[in-house]
Amino acid sequence: MTEIKKKRDGFGSKIGIIAAAAGSAIGLGNIYRFPCELGNNGGAAFLLVYLVVVIFLGVPVMLSELAIGRRSQSNAVGAFKKLAPKSAWPLVGYLGVLCGFIIFAFYSTVSGWTLEYIVKAVTNSFRGKDLATIEQDFADFHNMGWRNVMWQAVFIFLTGFVVFKGVQDGIEKYAKILMPLLFVILVVLGIRSVTLPGAGEGLSFLFKPDFSKITGKVLINALGQGFFSLSLGMGVLITYGSYIKKSDNLTSTAFSVVIADTLIALLAGIVIFPAAFSFGINPKAGMGLVFNTIPMIFNQMAGGYFFCIIFFVLLAIAALTSTISLLEVVVAYVSEQLHIKRQWATIVACAISLLVGAFASLSLMENTPFTICGKTMFDAMDFISSNVMLPLGGMLIVIFVGWKMGKSQFFAEVANEGALKAPMKAIIYFIIRYLAPLAIAVVFVTGLIK
Ligand code: PFF
């Protein structure tokens, strides 16, 4: 065994764990990616499938990851090495580390946009502009490829800085205060959005499902979005689970994170769609949907200037707590398994991510040469990691817990070696062992065939 024997960093308080795990889950996936996916996949029909995914798969998969992490006291790769020595299971961890790299690379592109939009908000550059101009500004910004890369580099540097400082005082401190603030500002925005003229149509789009729209593509996109939004399938929660104290309740942590994450995504939907329909923005607008709709709402609000700044600052921080978790998976693996100093691991991981991520940013320019099979590199990285690698990783993780780690170890971990009752453990274990692997496999195969 190649584990480091030093004392591992850990989360200090119960709220610290939930805040850090929720900080990882809540991010651009909720506020940017969720509305894009919903808009492109039939509206309410997508929401329905998405809710089924997060309710039935979210908690079991999350609990599996937390249990693996805390039982093994190790990173995404080391965990499998410890719990299943001399087997092929550590490959699941390697898949996760690779996936973390890919997600960090393209996620940091959009994270960089939040910084550009903070500058736009501070310099009051949305004020008085009509939709066509705001849309044109967004398109022009994409065509400034190197400006995108510059902001991406700043964002990667910020992430590296926090991870460099270590788990406890890095992640916990930031996440605890700021996520509730994001919730509050989304509520304020939601109220403005639903009271705009013509908002009802947007609410129908969001909440009135047309069942004929549920296709294989919708299923796989909703599955991918569920895993992406909850940060599942690549070992973030294995890594974080290893920092959780033995006396903390894993089940309630998993429930709290799933509920918080889903609430924020729903709120984002309530903010975006009524306003988008009111302003005449196409719900299938994709990347522009959120970045054009939000400034338009603030233009219609008393105090819009200040709210707009606060919103984009909080969005950047939400993105930051997610990129921290992505980088943490890679750094924990490199430093513990390869015995490279944490600081060096952070620097090297950030440099490689920027190198790969720059292609994602530059692939969004008009006439870009950076495409693969007709997709921009950004879309290709997003698709392969979110819709293929995360569900695959999630499926292997539940199979591991259900069939390899086994009931007694899982129960012991979830019930804190008998100190807790954990009344839901049997039903959750049943889902982990039978339903979750089957459901993921079916959706996966249907989606890929279609
Ligand atoms: N869950 C994050 C979000 O919704 O923005 C993104 C993410 C973070 C995905 C960490 C995967 C991950 F491992």
Task: Describe it.
There is one protein chain. This protein is mostly helical and 450 residues long. A two-stranded antiparallel ribbon has the order 1-2. Helix 2 packs across helix 12, helix 8 packs parallel to helix 12 and helix 10 packs across helix 16. The N terminus is likely disordered. Bound molecules: 4-fluoro-L-phenylalanine (PFF). 4-fluoro-L-phenylalanine binds next to helix 1, helix 2, helix 10 and helix 14.
How many individual β-strands?
2
* Number of helical elements: 17
Report strand %.
Answer: under 5%
Instruction: Give the low-confidence spans.
Output: 1-6
What's the helix-strand series? HHHHHHHHHHHHHHHEEHH
> What ligand molecules are bound, each kind once?
4-fluoro-L-phenylalanine
Strand order of the largest sheet: 1-2
Helix-residue proportion: over 70%
Mean pLDDT: 92
Alpha-carbon distance between the two ends? 44 Å
Mind describing the biggest β-sheet?
2 strands, antiparallel
The secondary structure category is mainly alpha
